[in-house]
Amino acid sequence: MENGRVHIQSPGYSKKASFEPNILRKLKIWFNKDSIRYAILGALFGLMFPLVVVVLDIYIKGLSFGFQSVIEVQKSDYHHWIIDTAPIFLGLMAYIAGYKSDNLRELYNEVVQSNERYLKLFEQSTEGILLVDPKTGLIFDVNSKALEIYGYERDEIIGQPTYIFLPKHKKDDYKQLRDILKKEGKFLIETERLKKDGSLFWAEISIGLVEKKERKIYQTCIRDISARKELEKEKERQLKAQKELTALLERKVKKRTEDLSAVNEQLSKQHEELTDSITYAKRLQNAILPKVEIIQESFPGSFIYYLPKDIVSGDFYWYHEWKGNYIIAIADCTGHGVPGAFMSILGTEMLNKAIIEEGLMDPGRILQRIDVHLARAFKSDNGSDIKDGMDMSLCVINKEKKEVKYAGAALPLIHGTKEGLNIYRGSRFGIGVSGLSLELKNYNTQTFTYSEGEGLFFFSDGYIDQFGGQKGKKLMIRGFKELLLSLKDVEKGKQQDYLHQHFMNWKGDYQQIDDVVVAGICLD
């Protein structure tokens, strides 16, 4: 208790005093102004009452007025002692009456202030509010925001049913919503509503059953969400337009694929459109790449670690089986992203043409043929050569002979044996990029045999050129070879995850600088 006001009370005292804790804390125990005033008045009245009684008794008995007469009257009648205590009892009763009066006044003022606060919040709410009688379904109160939303005057809404706000095509919803409200006591919906002027708008409406002054009412809150709905419609229109644009780009890409010479002329004009349709380009590229499961059927335990820098990649891998020969290639095209992805499509077509259509099985001759095809495809009208192309490593594996034929265009091949790692380096120039004439570019085929349990590792330069580690340097071929040696202790089927985790740890917070592809072929 502080300054005559209770701040903390025990539950037991609350129960005995029949006061709730939050009410009793507000009661002033002493020095209430009404209690003091009534106590003084009661005491004064109590003093006057016995004095008048004694004077009347002296007068009736014919005694002379004086102190001795007062003593005799007091001794002669014991009731005078009870009357003389009247100031005490009357003062105490007056104090209690003042205490109760002050307490009731405080509670009354608190109720009035609470009601004023509610009305203020009700009117100043940023949401429209309707108060509805559950029994009749009629509106008995409404705030200014609701009037603003619906466009009505207050006397036009009070006493009306809520279905006056329902548009014709929503009339059937009224009964359904009432059933939900009766069953669950609340609901939240987004629906169309009708203004006074007949216009429609989108509203978020929440209705709940609340109790106010022992009376149950439905409180309906309305928010105008027309702007949000219009934004959603605009997003839908944009999405539809984007899908139409994507479909248009797909048709264009298909046409450019059929006519490679026209692709080069159209790429510069359609660059922005192709960038916007990068999702489609990714889907197209994934469809062209061979399924890893097909490679694993012929070489169990093999893996392809493929990690584009952007959504689409300039690195790709290729696989084909023909009459006991298994042809595997990986390539790193000029650039990455969309330009690299288109080049990868072109490289895939060149491999199909040289191997499947023309039947070439010698790796060196295959690379030479692809170089010729690229030179013809990239020959511009003014006679200058376009400096685009790809690096590639290509192997033809013969299981019966346990023989591998390899040729490379600026990409090496690593042969993993029981003794260690052998690295085979192909020609130092790539396909279609070098300034040398076709006659001076020669891709030699290298042949070697293998034993069961050995492996071949193809890789682009994206893995070994990645900056990272503690000093922010490139991994380089030496670090990559150490990583490959550690793969022998990793369970087959988990080697791809091992390479990925190592790459992520090495890269750390550095950005990936290029596309990555690493192929591991288990020889049997």
Structure description:
The structure is a single chain. Helix 3 packs across helix 4 and helix 3 packs antiparallel against helix 6. With 524 residues, the chain is α+β, with helices and mostly antiparallel strands. The longest helix has 39 residues. It has 19 helices and 17 strands. A five-stranded antiparallel sheet has the order 2-1-5-4-3, with helices on both faces. Strands 6-17-14-11-12 form a five-stranded antiparallel sheet, sandwiched between helices. It is elongated, with a radius of gyration of 48 Å. The N terminus is likely disordered. 48% of the residues lie in helices and 20% in strands.
Please describe the topology of this protein.
Blueprint: H1 11-17, H2 21-24, H3 33-61, H4 67-76, H5 79-84, H6 86-124, E1 128-132, E2 139-142, H7 144-150, H8 154-157, H9 173-184, E3 186-194, E4 200-212, E5 215-224, H10 226-258, H11 260-269, H12 271-276, H13 278-288, H14 292-298, E6 303-307, E7 315-322, E8 325-333, H15 337-357, H16 363-377, E9 390-398, E10 403-409, E11 413-416, E12 421-424, E13 446-449, E14 455-459, H17 461-464, E15 467-468, E16 473-474, H18 476-486, H19 495-507, E17 516-522
Antiparallel strand pairs: 1-2, 1-5, 3-4, 4-5, 6-17, 7-8, 8-9, 9-10, 10-13, 11-12, 11-14, 14-17, 15-16
Helix pairs in contact: 3-4, 3-6, 13-15, 15-16
